[in-house]
Amino acid sequence: MTHRMVEDDYRDPGYRGADYRDADYRDEGPLDPDDGYPPEDLDKKGRTPAQRKKRRWKIIRRSAYAFVGLFIVIPAIAFVITYFMVDVPSPQSIAQGQNQAVTYLYADGSPMGKDVPSGGNRQILTPAQIPDVVKHAVIATEDSSFETNSGFDVTGLLRAAFNQLTGKAGGGSTISQQYIKKATDNDAPTLTRKWTELAKSFKMNQTYEKQDIITAYLNIIYFGRGAYGVGAASQAFFHKDVSKLDYTEAALLAGLIQQPGRSENPKVAQGRWNTALDRMLENKYITAQQRQSAQFPQVIPLEESKDDANAPYKFINMQVKAELAQHGIDDDKYYAGGYTVQTTIDKHAQEVATQVATDALKDQSDDRLLNSLVAVDPKTGGVLAYYGGPALVDVNGKKQGARDWANTPQNPGSSMKAFDLTAFLKMGKGINETFDGSNNRVFDGRKVRNAGPSSSCSGQCTVAEAMKRSANTVFYDMVLNQTHPGPVGQAAQEAGVKTKDNGGKSLISTADANIALGGGNTQITPADMASAYATFAANGIQRDRHFVLKVTNAQKEVAYEAQPSAGKPAFDSSADKAKQIAGNVTMALGPVVDFSHLKCPSGHECAGKTGTQQHTMRSGEPAWAANANAQTWMVGYTPSVSVAAWVGADGDQALHGSGTSPIYGSTIAGPMWQKFLDGYLKGKPAEKFDQVPLIGVQAPPPQGDQNAGDEPPQQTATNQPDPGGDGNDHGGPITGGPSQPHWPTGLPHWPSGKPSSHNPPTGGPTTGEDPPQE
């Protein structure tokens, strides 16, 4: 029987009244076959096609809502939260934190070299210092949408994702993202890092101008050859300032950003250069004609680009760093400011010092010999030249850093006698006071000997004559019985010797009278000796030794500038008294130069003192070691420069010259000192010391000729040099010496004059400044 539907019985299959609102969420069960649809149109659950269609669309809508919520709304909210939580590294802060090379200049402003940090060379530039051609080359090559994107490029991200899935190369990072990655030094392959990078990159583009972002990027990115930043790269590849680069050179640097480690591979470099030029053309930064006519730029050889080849002298660098630390630029700040340091070093003086010191040891038979030379300007305290030996030495076939011998304390030997005399003059005693200058005198049961026949003088020997001859017995007597050790140490420090308890390295021992002859535990650096003698040259005005004139930062602002030093009176509160004391020391030291067979530079008065320290012979050493010396010196000055020259070894070694002959202050150190002064002062105006009144006795008492041990021994068949114990080996014939001299009335200087010659003595007593033990 057929059932016929009436109008009231019919309902839309998708409509079930108020009770059917949630039809999609429950199963109504199969429809009755008599409801009006053929059985074949119903699914297994009895749903009609219209019901099924509506259900599908509702599922799609729900999925779309979930997708939008999960992948758009929630990330957007998270991105906003991240945006406000992250800090964007400002270009200024990153620039300050980057290690940059420190540029060194000589006193005249000419370049000395660059101190490059271990991470490579860096140079922080301003937007105006980087030309557009460089910016355009990098933008075209690395991020063509840089000018318009907001810190990240969606199409670039999708392209990068596709490349990763398909195994192809190429990333999607913008210039902003690359900068963030380099600035934060975080390259971890994590979603967290990438997420915060995107937020920081976006925030950076909302915070800074595009020109600041591209500049910051170009200051931090690595180009190869140890060059961080386009400023350093321009020098490393072309020896050019970045402002001088043309479009072909800019293209090469831009291309190398992707493969800086292969910058020396010609094929890679050529390929990256072509890629950069093609992209510059696509972005209309160059014309088709420029692209066609482009020639691969000439790159300097790799060895010429190495930063260490152009580094400042290592030991000057070390001294400058130590000095800057005292003025607020310590190790944490040293490489951060892009500093330029103008030093006190005179270029010509440094070249002369390096040459004469190197030449002095070239033909020596003793390969243990070391040397150093320091020159100081008495008028300023500025170091004019500083040579502490080679910066590198060969040890078992490998190069390693050497010690700075100019800053290593050594026994000063008889060069200490200048401070003995200073203490004596401060007592009101003078250079015409007399002492027993004979040899082998005994003090408190201890025998003190003079170093050789020419070092002894009469039983009534003036201090001036004793200084010229370097008579040990006179100065040991003076310090032991009159000045005492303490005032000698004080005089040395007043002159400029910096001890360990006063920020220096030198040691001054006042425990016994060994200080008189520069032995025992008294050890002074060559740098301190040059500074201390500079005080005598400066008429008793002491000025601290320094290496730095001025420091400017990357913005050309002055970070530190040394102020001209008026100095301070060294040996007395009165400048006039200090000058008189210093002038009397100069009177006594003047004749030493000539007596040691050295000469003052032409047209220049000079004064100085040689010195040696005897080697302590050890068991098993050859017999000649008993006469050997371990340290030798020549320290002296003109009114415009004070120079300390040291020749010795690492520790107490029995040093020798030709054959097994001992070396003295005038053997190697003296000629080195003289050659430096000749070279440095050549062509400079003549100069004389100021005249000052004598202190103490104006003239020694009249007396006849006395020669207490001065007569040279008879010549023998041997051919040993004169063992002048403090370095006064006269290199040739010397007589028994002139009779006891008198101070000529009205003359400010002790008259010099070469002693007459004699045959070289032989078989003299052993050398040494330090009084031998009984």
TrEMBL record:
The UniProt transmembrane annotation reads 64-86
Q: For the region Disordered, what residue ranges are annotated?
A: 1-53, 695-774
Q: What is this protein called?
A: Transglycosylase domain-containing protein
Q: Which UniProt keywords apply?
A: Carboxypeptidase, Glycosyltransferase, Hydrolase, Membrane, Multifunctional enzyme, Protease, Transferase, Transmembrane, Transmembrane helix
Residue span(s) of domain Glycosyl transferase family = 119-280
Q: Please indicate which superkingdom the organism of origin belongs to.
A: Bacteria
Catalysed conversion reaction: [GlcNAc-(1->4)-Mur2Ac(oyl-L-Ala-gamma-D-Glu-L-Lys-D-Ala-D-Ala)](n)-di-trans,octa-cis-undecaprenyl diphosphate + beta-D-GlcNAc-(1->4)-Mur2Ac(oyl-L-Ala-gamma-D-Glu-L-Lys-D-Ala-D-Ala)-di-trans,octa-cis-undecaprenyl diphosphate = [GlcNAc-(1->4)-Mur2Ac(oyl-L-Ala-gamma-D-Glu-L-Lys-D-Ala-D-Ala)](n+1)-di-trans,octa-cis-undecaprenyl diphosphate + di-trans,octa-cis-undecaprenyl diphosphate + H(+); Preferential cleavage: (Ac)2-L-Lys-D-Ala-|-D-Ala. Also transpeptidation of peptidyl-alanyl moieties that are N-acyl substituents of D-alanine
Comp. bias (Basic and acidic residues):
1-29
The answer, when asked if NADP is one of the entry's keywords, is no
Give the compositionally biased regions (Acidic residues).
30-40
- Give the organism the record lists: Amycolatopsis albidoflavus
Domain annotation Penicillin-binding protein transpeptidase: ranges: 373-642
